[in-house]
Design goal:
70 residues; 3 helices; elongated; 84% helix
Length: 70
């Protein structure tokens, strides 16, 4: 259920807000990768969640761009 709620929230965002969210999630993923490689990441499940959220945001962004163009 949480996954569907997250997707619903993403689809409710405007195009500019969605672009900002993708950028924010990308930066968060980068920070988590650095922490993982240096051994400072205690919550290892967070890395997978961040990747999933970024993929979902990119998918919704692509959907909105496709609907805007067509």
């Amino acid at each position: 259920m949480k996954k569907k709620d997250n997707l619903k929230e993403l689809r409710d965002l405007s195009l500019e807000q969605l672009k900002a969210k993708v950028k924010e999630l990308n930066e968060e993923g980068m920070k988590l990768r650095f922490r993982k490689s240096s051994g400072q990441l205690d919550q290892t499940h967070r890395f997978g969640e961040a990747k999933t959220q970024l993929a979902q945001a990119k998918t919704v962004l692509a959907e909105k761009l496709a609907s805007a163009a067509g």
